[in-house]
Design brief:
Helix 16 packs antiparallel against helix 17 (484-501). Among the domains are: 50-196, Dipeptide-binding Protein, Domain 1 (Dipeptide-binding Protein, domain 1, Alpha-Beta Complex), CATH 3.90.76.10; 295-511, Dipeptide-binding Protein, Domain 3 (Dipeptide-binding Protein, domain 3). The protein is 30% helix and 21% strand. It is of the alpha+beta class and 541 residues long.
Length: 541
């Protein structure tokens, strides 16, 4: 056993001892019975905060989804359905939303609530929770969610009203984000209570213990307000145990041994071990695990920083050459084991209304070489571009490097930690960067916002600094459009305009892929690839 492997082994042993301690006070048979209903998984990227106001990373959101609720939620088909709000009404102008809250939603127990240790959620709790999102002292990255909001108020104890500055059809979907989850004022503002590390919410699971870099444990909330279709209380599981092994190979090894209940990724280090080139399970795993695949609203892409001093990035023709200078279908087949779809169209991914039906990125090496030759002759130098990535996508970037070299473009790869890449991308320090855009909410506006000039980074998600007056006008027009058909037509026009200027290189439209142990039931997928465990249970192995 190597030194590194030994380190992770003892880390796991320590985490298992840590988990067993949550059942102290139970006899051995109780411990055994309950431990069979523990869902175990790993977050190799770790978790930064359990405060929903800071729910910006998938790892954080996955845990926060189990702990908190908002006014509304999305079902597996991305329809907006009730959560804490029993129902709602929207006025004829589409600007006033009135939510009528359920009366049986309780916060998790906490000493800050006094002798009863809990209380019901009220409309004032949502006023407080929304105030936190826009409070500069809090510094929430989710404040943008309320950009279209003019005001909000508690009409009475169980009626919460929001008024928008103008109609915004995607607003209900936006409210499903965990930024908008309800939190209790008396707990958050207790100076003796570290809310980030000891959250109190309303969700199907409650916080039990967190040893950073080792293990996070959540326990069943026995007073949760939701039921299944037969009237049985949710959740079914007794607990959730999340490990933080940073080594992806160790994560895979422990999953293959049944120590983790699912894998939520397809890493190059083990993809061929699990999957055939056609994207099916290898024979050795067909009796051990289930493969789940489904639509995923995620576009993987290369961003090109248009405020760069590099003339190669300032040339629309050269940017087009990059887009048509490599074979996306071959990339998906050999580097992704046929998981995902080649991004031959626009930036909006498959599955969202408003995506263009035109093809812009078909592999055309001869035309690409001609464009590069023209650039080289005009600029008296061959194009060179620095491309930043993290280790998880190094194989794809190296593929681009090899393929683009064939048409005359030199790519220099800068490998950096994920956090460093994220910061450098936001601050405009990179010529080109590998990135993902996973939908925050199921509306194409979410993707088009990356190209609206008012959203220039670092204040917004326009990391490429793309700016076109015509695009901005269409974007603002779409925000005011209440007709779904007309809004979709505008979305499609904007998607096509992006690919006429090529500020990005779409690589592929992703598919969600999960590897799940055979005894895990009720584990459903959704196009946002969000983790919800309230309906999951485990059978005997």
């Amino acid at each position: 056993m190597t030194k590194q492997a030994s380190k992770y082994f003892w880390l796991l042993i320590g985490s298992l001892h840590f988990f067993s301690s949550i059942f102290l006070g139970c006899n051995s048979s109780d411990v055994d019975a309950k431990s069979k209903q523990v869902f175990r998984y790993n977050e190799h990227k770790n978790i930064g905060s359990l405060d929903p106001a800071f729910a910006k990373d998938n790892a954080d959101i996955s845990a926060i989804n189990q702990l908190f609720n908002g006014l509304v939620q999305l079902d597996n088909d991305l329809n907006v359905v009730p959560e804490i709000a029993a129902q709602w009404a929207i006025d004829s102008l589409g600007t006033t939303y009135t939510f009528y809250l359920k009366k049986d939603v309780f916060f998790h127990e906490s000493i800050q609530f006094g002798s009863k240790k809990t209380r019901t959620v009220t409309a004032e709790d949502f006023v407080y929770s929304f105030n936190r999102l826009t409070d500069p002292a809090v510094g929430s990255p989710g404040g943008w969610v309320l950009q279209q909001v003019e005001s909000y108020q508690a009409i009475d104890q169980h009626t919460f009203q929001i008024k928008l500055k103008q109609t915004f059809p995607a607003f209900l979907s936006l409210l499903s984000m965990r930024y908008c989850a309800v939190v209790p004022k008396e707990v958050v503002e207790d100076p003796q209570h570290a809310f980030r590390k000891n959250p109190i919410g309303t969700g199907p699971f409650k916080f039990k213990a967190w040893e950073e870099d080792i293990k996070l444990v959540l326990r069943k909330n026995n007073h949760y307000f939701e039921q299944d279709n037969q009237g049985n209380p949710l959740p079914y599981l007794e607990a959730i145990a999340i490990s933080f092994l940073p080594d992806i190979q160790s994560e895979f090894m422990l999953f293959s041994q049944g120590k983790f209940d699912f894998l939520n990724s397809l890493d190059p280090s083990y993809k061929d071990e699990l999957l055939t080139p056609k994207g099916t399970l290898q024979i050795a795993y067909q009796d051990k695990v289930n493969l789940q695949k489904g639509p995923y609203l995620n576009t993987e892409y290369i961003g090109l920083y248009l405020d760069s001093n590099n003339p190669a990035l300032l040339s629309t023709e050269l940017r087009k050459a990059i887009n048509i200078g490599f074979d996306r279908e071959k990339m998906i087949r050999y580097l992704r084991n046929t998981i995902g779809f080649p991004a031959l169209g626009g930036f909006i991914p498959k599955g969202l209304a408003g995506k263009t039906t035109q093809t812009f990125n078909q592999y055309q090496p001869q035309q690409a070489r001609a464009l590069v030759k023209k650039f080289t002759e005009e600029n008296k130098t061959a194009p060179t571009i620095r491309l930043a990535t993290d280790i998880n996508y190094l194989d794809i970037c190296e593929y681009l490097q090899r393929e683009l070299q064939k048409i005359g473009i030199k790519i220099v790869i800068d490998l950096m930690p994920t956090a460093t890449l994220r910061q450098a991308k936001s601050s405009g320090k990179l010529e080109a960067f590998r990135a993902s855009w996973i939908a925050d909410y199921p509306d194409a506006e979410n993707y088009l916002s990356l190209f609206y000039s008012a959203n220039f980074s670092p204040g917004g998600p326009n990391y490429t600094h793309f700016k076109q007056a015509e695009f901005d006008a269409l974007y603002k027009k779409a925000l005011l459009q209440s007709s779904l058909d007309e809004r979709i037509a505008l979305y499609r026009e904007m998607d096509e305009m992006i690919m006429q200027y090529y500020p990005v290189v779409p690589l592929y439209y992703d598919q969600a892929v999960r590897f799940v142990q055979k005894n895990v039931q009720g584990f459903e997928m959704n196009p946002l690839n969000l983790l919800y465990l309230k309906r999951v249970y485990k059978t005997a192995p």
